[in-house]
Amino acid sequence: MHTANTGTTIRFVITAALTVFVSNSQSITTFGVTTTETQAVIRYDAPDSNPCTVQISESMSLSPPVHDVDPALFPGSNLDSRMGSVSNGPHRVFVAGKRDAERAADGRRYSRALQANTEHFYQIACNGTVFASTFQTADPVLGDDYTEIPTFDSTAFGNYGWPSIDWTNQSISYIDPLTGLLLKRVSFSQANGYV
User: Fold this and answer.
1) Has this prediction a pTM greater than 0.70?
2) CA gyration radius for the chain?
3) DSSP per residue over 95-137, as a string?
4) Among 11, 41, 171, 172, which is least packed by CB within 10 angstroms?
């Protein structure tokens, strides 16, 4: 028990020291990340009142970005001035992830939820200053049998706001917008229908 506490304390001290070092050298001060299964709330102070860009990916290279902050799909979604974020001068709160599937610039619907129980890499860039770190989304609570109302989209088939499925490519995976669970197709398309 004592060893586990010591390990936790050391990890906290190293993280705090890294944050202070990066903040002092790059003028971005972070105050932490709070996560759920589908979202992350990132709190930080920018060096000035200009908008910053936020990149988030499941890859250390930050490519590809998660759908929620992919400006190719959702223009302006990688700016901390977007709807749902809070800016008060240099004080910022950026909410990444949304429990919804929305129509993107390419006409398809994408889940904007972050994948549950997954390490994400993020980078904040403000006028040439950069801060980079990671966060882990929460693990979904299993055994909860309460049925949630599906997301609504009046322009979608059946008014359900689910991600568009590519029936020709079985290798594509999808994120459930309500739970953050990773979904993969197990069926494949045939010339005369679906199997």
Assistant:
1) yes
2) 19
3) EE--SSEEE-TTS-EEE-SPPTT-EEEEEEEETTEEEEEEEEP
4) 171
